[in-house]
Amino acid sequence: MSLFVPKFDETVLVRDAEAEVVGGDPVAVKLLADSSAGGGALSTVRVTLAEGADGAKPHVHHHSAEMFYLLDGAADVLSGDDVVTAERGDLIIVPPDRPHAFAAVPGASADLLIVITPGVERFEYFRHLQRIRLGQAAPESLLDVQELYDNHFLHSEAWEKRRG
Asked: Taking a C-beta distance cutoff of 8 angstroms, is the pair 36, 123 a contact?
């Protein structure tokens, strides 16, 4: 087991009112701390999903674990071949190389704090997703940046069965 020791000297403080928000209804991503802010220790975003909205399609991270903490609402979370429903106060940590996805459950919204560790510079990834939503970039353009953001999409029978 290796120990990653982040290198930064100052306390990181992100004021809620000053954080950039990408998107809106049905999916809003509040960019809290990118990897460079905390010396590579983590990347943190807050994702707010409208009722039944998809958060992320099935994917893996080869170099990072991902933590989901439900601040409010309910979310379906894929981890491997299991789909669980997480509710307010629940925590899920997905290890590297494990397929995962998340979405608000039908009929409910979800508010999630998401942390990736060690961190990956991901703010530009969420801005890229917004450009795709706005029609300013092609969906296929995500394939060109999978390595850069350590975000590799895949198919999941379990997710398809649960989410349709």
From this structure: no
Q: Which of 29, 32, 36, 28 minimizes the C-alpha distance to 18? A: 32
10 Å Cβ neighbour count for 17? 5
Query: What pLDDT is stored for residue 122 in this prediction?
Result: 94
Question: 0.85 exceeded by the pTM?
Answer: yes
- Give CA–CA dist 41/39, Å, rounded: 6
Cα(97)–Cα(33) distance, rounded to whole angstroms? 23
Say whether 97 sits in a helix, a strand or coil.
coil
Calpha distance 100→121 (Å, rounded): 19
Bridge partner list, 91: 69
What are 65's strand-pairing partners?
A: 117
pLDDT digits (tens, 9 = 90+) for 12-32: 999 999 999 999 999 999 999
Residue 35 and residue 63 in contact, taking contact as beta carbons nearer than 8 Å:
no
Question: Which residue is associated with the tokens 């590579």?
Answer: 40
Name the residue among 51, 46, 45, 40 with its Cα closest to residue 74.
Answer: 51
